[in-house]
Amino acid sequence: MRDPYEVLGVSKTAGEAEIKKAFRGLAKKHHPDTKGGDAAAQKRFQEISAAYDIVGDKEKRTKFDQGEIDANGNPRGFDPGAHGYGGGADPRDFHFSWRNGEGGEGGIRPEDLISELFGGGGGRRRRRQARRGEDFSIAITVGFEEAARGGTRRLILPDGREVDVRIPVGVRDGQQVRLKSQGGPGAENGPAGDVLLTISVAPHPWLNRDGNNLRMDLPVTLGEAVLGGKVTAPTLTGPVTLTVPAGSNSGTSLRLKGKGIPAHGGQPAGDLYLRLIVTLPEKPDATLKDFVAGWHADYDPRARLG
Prior knowledge:
By secondary structure, the protein is an alpha+beta fold. It is about 25% helix and about 20% strand. The chain has eight helices and eleven strands. The strands form four sheets. The protein has a four-stranded mixed β-sheet with strand order 6-7-11-10. Helix 2 packs antiparallel against helix 3.
């Protein structure tokens, strides 16, 4: 074997901490478990381990520096071939000759460092630890009505898979939905990750959400406001007819029970609140203008303002 200092890339004056750091880095880089059993990596890792077995032990290092043992840890003049020792060992089966299973005066065993690096035990073959798969974070925008009533979306995940996602009834803007085990696959039989779906809700042209209730402005004509009558109003489930009481002012509120966000998660359905807005014609109406010109109302709509 080459000079162990050269193998580890340290000088002969290197301290214990420097030698340990060098071994950790090389062991992690060349460990056979990270190279798919590559034969060259196995040989390199065996060389690194044997080098640390020499210079990582104070007693052996002293003997090597004094020329009492060679780079293989054998007494000078020792012939391994004559004693039946052959090459070709699996470096993951490499056994170190530390006294009584303990480290030398340095107190660090190569097995312990490798176990620390790769999470294995002290056995002959270290089992790779199961690892949970990657979580995928995805943001989508849904329509106001789809968020209120729920629905299904097909998504393409970062790994190319397509999944059908259920949009919960009554989902709120910014709410996060977790899709269990739909993320990246785990390693070494570890569990799959999740999909974290952040939902944005697009605004509606006339509906606004207030908890589980909905609110909207409902335009009515001057005649409907003064005389009352039947009018049609849109809802999430389609148009409904309601009665506008005679003499209704702008700001009068009417309630349609159960026409808000549908029941979900143990919560009852919300209501739809309609605020009446008296609206004049967009184009000038001569008849209305003449009527108002000759109409002398005896009331002050601003009296309550002070």
